[in-house]
Design brief:
Distance between the termini: 21 Å
Largest sheet: 5 strands, mixed, barrel
Shape: globular
Helix content: under 10%
Number of strands: 5
Strand content: over 45%
Order of helices and strands: HEEEEE
Low-confidence stretches: none
CATH class: Mainly Beta
Structural class: mainly beta
Number of helices: 1
Radius of gyration: 14 Å
CATH topology: OB fold (Dihydrolipoamide Acetyltransferase, E2P)
Mean pLDDT: 89
Length: 91
């Protein structure tokens, strides 16, 4: 039997799975009806983002498993690389 991350990785070629990484920053902000969560991961310079309907407790200092894909966002006229999280689990 294959796990959910393995199934996702087979189905979507751009997805990346990273396990057991430490969260060094976790910020939540409201945008319309969503709570946008932004994570910074230790030793990685790119922000990781995901949306939830409700606020979540801070996961700063936790080790997490992430399934994500790279994308870009335009902020103040600049293109910024962002990792869009599709699955996050505390390890």
């Amino acid at each position: 039997m294959t796990s959910l991350p393995e199934k996702l990785l087979k189905k979507h070629q751009r997805l990346v799975q990273t396990d057991n990484v430490k969260v060094c920053s976790h910020v939540q902000r409201e945008q319309d009806d969503w709570i946008i969560n932004t994570l910074m991961i230790e030793n990685i310079e790119v922000p990781f983002k995901y949306k939830r309907k409700t606020p979540y407790r801070s996961i700063v200092g936790q080790k997490v498993n992430l399934t994500y894909y790279p994308t870009t966002e335009t902020v103040a006229g600049f293109d910024i690389e962002v990792m869009k999280i599709v699955r996050i689990r505390i390890s």
